[in-house]
Recover the amino acids of this structure.
């Protein structure tokens, strides 16, 4: 039998056994060569064949082509190819259609290989292609009519001729075969064994850099034309991604034969992208430790494989252990050993199952294993009817008959369904391992499943299994539960539609990180899912550090919740609708390249009392080690889920990147295989479950917060049918894009086009954008029955039984508890049960309360009653570990020991009534200060709340943290609960009339300060209006709420209602003429300040402009905002409008000659300062430039704007254009010798100031460098661009190359002694300006360091790389090591006095340049200074008690600058410290003797202390315009692409642990960011350079710093402090601080400065009188700009194009603008959510929103939301600023 026939036969056996084959040989390729009729491509490096005309049209993707070209570089194209440099080194996609079996820089010059190609109709070739396609795509109806065969035989990679290694002997052979008919095309790639010996090629222009680009294998459609002239990138498909995947090409395949790859590449009809075959195939070499029958898919996305060692495959000795069964190795099912006949006996290993096969069901199920990999294209797999799938762990079908242990069938893990198949069911979708079961081997008469009236489950008997929000339906074989409208789920568990969902649970197991096992002991997991837009946030707390970093890539832990509650696109459903709240998810993760395996088992255990989903997670296995501090990024991806009865499965491969300081950037991947088993209901035959769905994870964020030991995953999820590709964001309905503005407790309902509707979730009420919870209990909407108590939940409610009752059999009805069954009474008493209670009666002749009975005589001591036991246990502290609990409620008992009917809490003052058991009676509690209830009166039913009262009480007036929510409207109700006809807003002052249902009556709203409408008067009709009057009155000058809209144009009408001929715009000052219809007459518009046109005169024609004048006038010399554009070139025209022959650039000084069309004449350009060319002389030919001159002239010495670029190296050439032998760098002063090509000669470089080397002398052999010289020369003193690097430490070596004993840092001035190895000798470092140590003297023992010296030496003055750290404060100590009384900051110049412990003495700080305070004199207290605080008084008293000089171990209270107690208190200079609250009282349990002080906050127990990572700046690369936003403890950077938010390039700019960043501003001149820190009470700044660190500018006398503004022209900054209600300013370094305003301010928030006018604007959201004010930057000319129609003006910005001030109001929800004089007010957007801060750029407003927790963009022109960015980490965003690479006119 020939080899090809053997392979074909072997492939046909996949259905009965596994056939593992070897790679194909060259003889197995399609016939090729001249004898087969092939053409031969010409030899060369970049050759393309003549056109290969096709006899019939070929469909590639969905386009028709009639010709092909074969190219040297391993590709076939449908169009003539460009030069290779345009594509050979680039990845996919290409600009032209490409079939690429091996795209690389191939060279056949010199007879190194041949390339053959032909188009053929030979029957043997056609038949072979047809067989290959039918094997890979069984459902395809394909009969090829033509085949194109292209073969590259023994071809070599291109190599540079200058390389000295000689020609490589590595040659490649491969083949591409294209088969097609009239509708479809398929492509085969063949890689014979030994055919690939090189796997990539070096770029031709790689210079001396040794890099190699791996070959690209795949397909590209090329560019696609649309709208006639526009072009866009077409689809593409890659088979390989790196060198390893190229190496795998001959080892694996997707046709069952290693080295053979098959793809469906085109169709005449709909075709989106390439579809790979997926039969499998791998080399016949077993893995280490045995061969597992793993026939996993080998499609390109799974191209990560191990390198297996050579071994022999012995099928007789093989253990048939499935490498990955469908359930991922379900521990409940262990396979029994199998014999060589491939028959197996499987036994469930669950407690309910027998431990050995049952005798009466011991027949084995004969099966054969067929691997059907999961694929994204299900249509090619057809299943025989007898193959029916069932879950691996067969749950009892809902409402069906259960299987007894004796009836459990013996089954393999993959298949358990032995029921007769339903003939009407659709064919099984491909997925998993499918095993056929022969019905003859199964006895269906054994009674395994029989439905009779005796065992059929019905709703009448089992309805309690359904959710209370579901209904039950009976079917022929059982019952099913279905969620009611407004709820979703599987019927057993139903949740309100649209409401956010919470998840809680525990994580346990053992995870091995590297070689270290880490135990996880039931740590907490919490998740929060915004169902409305598919965002899922997962947090796992208390994760130990090693495993915390290592688990960052394990986003699949949180992806489960994303799948359960994904945003549903049409024709799809999220997982919870299928599984409900009870399921088991088993997943296995295999990491590459280390092959670590981790098992994830997540069990859904139902919904808790708050409707939260409970999920427990067990992790076991190993994960790769990740360095501490690493960052993990994961790209968006898609995953296909296959659905079967009771199980859903998926398989995918993910790639992730790890960036760490130790290893740099690394790429890894892992394979995820998972099953989710659940309990479904099969009795409803009408229910149609999906076969496949696609989950799209659009954003994946992972992080481990070391300080909090929290592991976080954030994933945005959408679910859709497979193959649904979302179109551009402008075409997707906001409901599906997730960028709608519906409330998080609302559903987004898509309408036509972009329209949508917001509808509050079930259980909520409102307009959809603002929803509040419905109290079903209070409104009588609950389903609770008798003897139940209704408990309201968010979006729902719960029914719980009253005291004395419990749930009955049906799970819904409350029945009486028979307390007597537990014998609660005395042995001599009788128990009488009653409804909800019981009674104990002593037997006749005995006396007592029934709980204790005795004879009357002889009884002296009565035993304690329940009340007395309760009371005494609390008073003695029995319930609190022996300590009485302060403030606890102590019950009061009467003289007989019974509970008093009225109980009061002594600490809180609340009182309430109780029953005989001490249980509180509902509705009887009264607050302190009010009369208590009469507990002897029966309860009176309260009247139900009215709609007005529900509305009023549902308004949230305080936040979850207890802070008041400003600006909320609270409806007013009368005594009967009805709406008062006249409603007024307490914050804004607006009033309006309402209907009986509270709806506003149109036209009745009045602004604050005006007389409100009489709500009893009807409206009066108006007389008809003229066209002009209609036009005038239709202009919206007031908003719907009654506020004036500034800046709108209002037409002027005469007395007769006609248009006046001359119209003028009241805000802008422009005037123009109009006709009688009000239409503007062309050419009549005049700008403000100029005389208007005479509207009675006709227009005069002007002569047409020349080309030069058009060119000149088209140059934008002013920006859109009216500012001049600097540096633009403006052509010069003569009087006739022609180009002047000599043109010069006014900014740069360059001049050149032009022709009559204005085109520059080559060679005429001269530099600034040089005499210009005589433009009347003809051009002279120049000699061609030499290499040196080209190098010199290519150096960019000026920027595109004409500014000089300092520090670049410019080579020097002699008069002949050759390199001068000696080259010197003009900026650094270094000199060196070069050869004729300009290459530096080794060892000739000299430092500045030293004699240069004689470049004419030959090189002398140098002695080897010493350790000191190596280290000295390795220090990088210039950057890669040639700029000097300042501040690096360079070791000093003597003439012999040894370390000089005394080393000094040239930049910082520090000196120290070193040993012979260059190591610093301890204790020898001296500060700059002090006498250095004598390094020849031996070390002397030092006295212990004092507190001051420890403080001084702990300050980090140099970075880890040796660079100086500027701006840090270094304390000064005297000779005895004590703090000098006066301390000064070396960088800022501030000075202050300190006490003996180095604490600053209040009021002694002086700014730079001011005379310092005499620190020996007491500081006088100004009369206006605040009174001394408790902390300061106590501190002064103790210091006086200690005689003025406390000892180091004595306690002195530590106070903050504002007089409050410091959260951390210590005994003197000891490490004995503790936390205190705001009153100075110790917080219990916080005492610490550690060197690291406890981290304390007032009144809060300290968190675990961990060292914080050093905060430094990480700016986004290559961005000109970036939005900077504050988000709690970080500052984020969001680049702009034009005006669009570029979310893909967003990143964290600066992480500031423990901070609350509020206000931010940017200095474009020095490229610095400034911010206020509400937590630290500081103002700070940092450079935007990578690695820059924060610098504290101001840290005193700040309480609540919020808004911040920077004046870049005057170098000033301004800020508001909302606690003392002040506005201050200072220089940008913090000096020159002074108060501008401290009066007539209540709540200042935002502040901006307009540098061009020197004007300051700020907002004050005083609830009684909010306003926006302005003044000059020096505090003069203060005035109110806007005060009417303002609510909570949070955000403020300046529109430079219109010269208007704009604000966003969180009270009125409007974005408005107004001119500085108060005129021209207009509304830009009427309905924002909750804006906080805002900036303006290019006709767009960008603001931070507290409702969406993101950045929102609004177009000024269209008044529409245009874009939004929602950070993956969900929390409030505060300030926002715009950062630019250079100062922009009108912005800075």
């Amino acid at each position: 039998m020939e080899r090809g026939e053997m392979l074909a036969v072997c492939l046909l056996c996949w259905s009965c056994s596994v056939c593992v084959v070897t790679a194909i040989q060259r003889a197995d390729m399609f016939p090729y060569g001249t004898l087969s009729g092939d053409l031969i491509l010409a030899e060369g490096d970049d050759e393309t064949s003549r056109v290969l005309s096709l006899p019939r049209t070929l469909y590639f993707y969905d386009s028709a082509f009639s010709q092909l070209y074969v190219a040297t570089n391993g590709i076939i194209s449908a169009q003539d190819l460009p030069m290779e440099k345009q594509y050979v080194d680039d990845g996919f996609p290409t600009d032209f259609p490409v079939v690429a079996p091996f795209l690389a820089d191939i060279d056949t010059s010199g007879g190194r290989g041949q390339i053959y190609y032909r188009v053929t109709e030979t029957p043997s070739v056609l038949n072979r292609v047809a067989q290959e396609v039918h094997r890979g795509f069984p459902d395809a109806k394909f009969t090829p009519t033509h085949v194109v065969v292209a073969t590259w035989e023994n071809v070599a990679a291109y190599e540079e001729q200058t390389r000295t290694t000689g020609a490589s002997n590595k040659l490649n052979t491969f083949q591409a075969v294209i088969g097609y008919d009239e509708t479809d095309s398929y492509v085969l790639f063949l890689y014979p064994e030994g055919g690939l010996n090189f796997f990539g090629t070096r770029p031709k222009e790689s210079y001396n850099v040794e890099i190699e680009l791996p070959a690209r294998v795949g397909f590209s459609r090329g560019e696609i034309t649309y709208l006639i002239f526009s072009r866009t990138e077409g689809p593409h498909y890659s088979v390989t991604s790196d060198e390893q995947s190229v190496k795998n090409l001959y080892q694996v395949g997707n046709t069952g034969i290693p080295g053979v790859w098959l793809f469906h590449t085109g169709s005449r009809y709909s075709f989106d992208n390439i579809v790979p075959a997926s039969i499998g195939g791998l080399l016949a070499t077993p893995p280490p430790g045995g061969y597992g029958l793993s026939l996993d898919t080998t499609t390109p996305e799974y191209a990560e494989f191990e390198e297996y060692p050579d071994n022999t495959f012995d099928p007789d000795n093989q253990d048939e252990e499935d490498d990955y069964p469908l359930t991922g190795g379900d521990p409940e099912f262990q396979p029994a050993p199998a014999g060589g006949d491939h028959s197996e006996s499987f036994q469930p290993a669950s407690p309910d199952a027998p431990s050995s096969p049952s005798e009466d069901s011991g027949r084995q199920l004969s099966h054969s294993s067929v691997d059907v990999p999961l694929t994204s294209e299900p249509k090619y797999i057809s299943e025989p009817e007898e193959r029916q799938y069932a879950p691996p762990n067969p749950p009892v079908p809902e409402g069906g008959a259960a299987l007894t242990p004796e009836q459990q069938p013996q089954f393999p893990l993959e298949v358990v369904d032995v029921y007769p198949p339903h003939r009407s069911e659709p064919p099984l979708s491909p997925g998993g391992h499918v095993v056929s079961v022969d019905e003859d081997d199964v006895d269906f008469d054994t009674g395994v499943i029989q439905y009779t009236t005796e065992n059929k489950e019905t709703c009448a008997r089992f309805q309690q299994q359904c959710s209370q929000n579901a209904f039950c339906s009976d079917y022929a074989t059982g019952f099913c539960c279905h969620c009611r409208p407004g709820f979703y789920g599987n019927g057993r568990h139903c949740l309100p539609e649209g409401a956010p969902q919470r998840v809680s649970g525990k994580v346990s197991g053992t995870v091995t990180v590297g070689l270290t096992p880490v135990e996880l002991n039931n740590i907490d997991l919490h998740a929060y899912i915004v169902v409305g837009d598919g965002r899922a946030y997962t947090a796992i707390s208390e994760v130990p550090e090693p495993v915390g970093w290592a688990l960052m890539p394990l986003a699949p832990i949180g992806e489960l919740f994303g799948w359960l509650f994904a945003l549903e696109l049409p024709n799809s459903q999220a997982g919870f609708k299928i599984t409900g709240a009870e399921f088991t998810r088993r997943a296995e993760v295999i990491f590459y390249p280390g092959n670590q395996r981790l098992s994830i088992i997540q069990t859904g255990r139902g919904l808790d009392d708050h409707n939260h989903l409970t999920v427990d997670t067990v992790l076991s296995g190993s994960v790769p080690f990740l360095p501490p501090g690493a960052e993990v990024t994961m790209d968006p991806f898609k995953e296909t889920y296959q659905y079967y009865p009771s199980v859903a499965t998926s398989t995918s491969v993910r790639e992730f990147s790890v960036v760490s300081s130790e290893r740099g950037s690394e790429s890894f991947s892992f394979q995820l295989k998972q099953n989710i088993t659940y309990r479904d209901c099969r009795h409803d035959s009408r229910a149609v479950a999906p076969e496949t769905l696609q989950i799209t994870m659009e954003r994946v964020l992972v992080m481990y917060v070391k300080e909090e030991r929290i592991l976080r995953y954030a994933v945005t999820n959408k679910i859709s049918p497979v193959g649904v590709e979302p179109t551009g964001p402008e075409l997707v309905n906001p409901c599906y894009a997730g960028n709608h503005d519906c409330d998080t407790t609302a559903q987004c309902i898509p309408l036509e086009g972009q329209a949508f509707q917001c509808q509050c979730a079930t259980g909520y009420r409102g307009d959809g954008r603002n929803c509040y919870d419905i109290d079903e209990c209070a409104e009588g909407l609950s389903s609770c029955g008798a003897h139940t108590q209704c408990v309201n939940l968010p979006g729902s409610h719960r029914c719980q039984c009253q005291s004395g009752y419990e749930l009955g059999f049906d799970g819904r009805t409350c029945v009486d508890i028979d307390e007597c069954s537990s014998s609660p009474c005395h042995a001599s008493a009788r128990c009488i049960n009653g409804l909800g209670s019981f009674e104990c009666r002593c037997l006749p002749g005995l006396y007592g309360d029934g709980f204790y009975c005795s004879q009357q005589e002889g009884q002296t001591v009565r035993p304690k009653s329940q009340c007395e036991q309760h009371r005494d246990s609390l008073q003695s502290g029995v319930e609190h570990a022996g300590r009485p609990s302060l403030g606890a409620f102590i019950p009061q008992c009467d003289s007989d020991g019974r509970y008093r009917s009225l109980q009061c809490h002594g600490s809180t003052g609340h009182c309430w009534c109780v029953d005989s058991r001490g249980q509180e009676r509902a509705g009887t509690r009264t607050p302190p200060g009010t009369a208590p209830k009469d507990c002897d009166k029966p309860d009176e039913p309260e009247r139900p709340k009215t709609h007005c009262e529900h509305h009023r009480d549902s308004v949230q007036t305080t936040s979850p943290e207890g802070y008041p929510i400003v600006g909320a409207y609270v409806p007013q109700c009368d005594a009967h609960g009805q709406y008062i006809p006249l409603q007024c807003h307490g914050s804004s002052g607006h009033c309006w009339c309402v209907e009986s249902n509270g709806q506003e009556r149109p036209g009745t709203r009045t602004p604050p300060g005006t007389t409100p409408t009489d709500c009893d008067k009807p409206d009066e009709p108006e007389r008809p209006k003229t066209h002009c009057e209609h036009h005038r009155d239709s202009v919206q000058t007031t908003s719907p709420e009654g506020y004036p809209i500034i800046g709108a144009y209002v037409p002027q009408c005469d007395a007769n209602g006609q248009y006046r001929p001359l119209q003028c715009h009241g805000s802008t000052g422009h005037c123009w003429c109009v006709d009688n219809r009000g239409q503007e007459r062309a050419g009549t518009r005049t700008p403000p300040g100029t005389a208007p046109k005479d509207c009675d005169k006709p227009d005069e024609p002007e002569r047409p402009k020349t080309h030069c004048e058009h060119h000149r006038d088209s140059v934008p010399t002013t920006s859109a905002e009216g500012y001049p554009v600097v540096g633009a070139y403006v052509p010069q025209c003569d009087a006739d409008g022609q180009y002047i022959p000599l043109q010069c650039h006014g900014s740069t000084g360059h001049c050149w000659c032009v022709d009559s069309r204005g085109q520059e004449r080559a060679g005429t350009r001269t530099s600034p300062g040089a005499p210009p060319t005589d433009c009347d002389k003809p051009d002279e030919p120049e000699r061609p430039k030499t290499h040196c001159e080209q190098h010199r002239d290519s150096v960019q010495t000026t920027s595109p704007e004409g500014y000089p670029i300092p520090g670049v190296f410019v080579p020097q050439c002699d008069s002949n254009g050759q390199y001068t032998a000696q080259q010197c760098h003009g900026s650094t002063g270094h000199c060196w010798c070069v050869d004729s090509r300009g290459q530096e000669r080794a060892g000739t470089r000299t430092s500045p100031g030293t004699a240069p080397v004689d470049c004419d002398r030959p090189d002398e052999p140098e002695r080897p460098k010493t350790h000191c010289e190596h280290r000295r020369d390795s220090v990088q003193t210039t950057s890669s661009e040639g700029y000097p690097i300042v501040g690096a430490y360079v070791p000093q070596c003597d003439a012999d190359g040894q370390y000089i004993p005394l080393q000094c840092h040239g930049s910082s001035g520090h000196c120290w002694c070193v040993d012979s190895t260059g190591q610093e000798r301890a204790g020898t470092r001296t500060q700059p300006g002090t006498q250095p140590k004598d390094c020849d003297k031996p070390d002397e023992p030092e006295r212990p360091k004092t507190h001051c010296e420890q403080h001084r030496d702990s300050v980090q003055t140099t970075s880890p790389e040796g660079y100086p750290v500027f701006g840090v404060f270094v304390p000064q100590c005297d000779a005895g090591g004590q703090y000098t009384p006066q301390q000064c900051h070396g960088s800022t110049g501030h000075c202050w006095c300190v006490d003996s412990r180095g604490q600053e003495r209040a009021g002694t700080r002086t700014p730079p340049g001011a005379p310092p305070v005499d620190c020996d004199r007491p500081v006088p207290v100004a009369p206006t200074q605040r009174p001394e605080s408790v902390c300061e008084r106590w501190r002064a008293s103790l210091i006086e008690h200690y005689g003025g000089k406390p000892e180091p171990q004595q306690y002195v209270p530590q106070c903050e600058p504002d007089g409050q107690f410091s959260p951390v208190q210590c005994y003197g200079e000891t490490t004995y410290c503790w936390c205190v609250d705001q009153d100075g009282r110790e917080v219990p349990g916080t005492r610490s003797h550690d060197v690291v002080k406890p981290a304390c906050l007032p009144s809060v127990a300290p968190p675990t202390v961990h060292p914080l990572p050093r905060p430094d700046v990480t700016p986004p690369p290559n961005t000109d315009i970036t939005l900077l936003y504050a988000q709690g403890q970080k500052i984020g950077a969001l680049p702009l692409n034009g005006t669009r938010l570029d979310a893909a390039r967003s990143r964290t700019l600066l992480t500031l642990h423990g901070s609350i960043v509020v206000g931010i501003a940017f200095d474009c001149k020095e490229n610095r960011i400034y911010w206020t820190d509400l937590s630290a009470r500081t103002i700070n700044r940092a450079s935007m350079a990578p690695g820059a660190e924060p610098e504290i500018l101001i840290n005193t006398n700040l309480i609540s710093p919020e808004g911040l503004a920077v004046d870049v022209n005057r170098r000033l900054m301004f800020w508001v402090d909302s606690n003392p209600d002040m506005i201050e300013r200072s220089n940008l370094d913090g000096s020159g601080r002074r108060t501008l305003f401290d009066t007539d301010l209540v709540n200042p928030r935002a502040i901006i400065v307009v540098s061009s006018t020197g004007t300051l604007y700020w907002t004050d959201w005083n609830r009684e009188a909010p306003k926006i004010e302005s003044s000059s930057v020096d505090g003069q000319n203060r005035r109110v700009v806007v005060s009417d129609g303002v609510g909570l003006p949070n955000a403020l910005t300046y529109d430079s194009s219109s010269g208007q001030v704009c604000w966003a109001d969180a009270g009125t929800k409007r974005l408005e603008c107004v001119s500085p004089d108060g005129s021209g007010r207009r509304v830009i957007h009427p309905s924002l959510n909750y804006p906080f801060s805002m900036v303006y750029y290019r006709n767009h407003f960008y603001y931070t929103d507290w409702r969406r927790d993101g950045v929102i963009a609004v177009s000024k022109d269209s008044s529409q939301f245009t874009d939004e960015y929602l950070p993956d980490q969900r929390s409030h965003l505060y300030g926002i600023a715009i950062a630019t690479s250079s100062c922009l006119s009108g912005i800075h």
Confidence is low (pLDDT under 50) at residues 1-20, 281-454, 1419-1424, 1499-1510. Residues 769 and 1156 are 64 Å apart (CA to CA). The two ends are 83 Å apart (CA to CA). The longest strand covers residues 516-530.
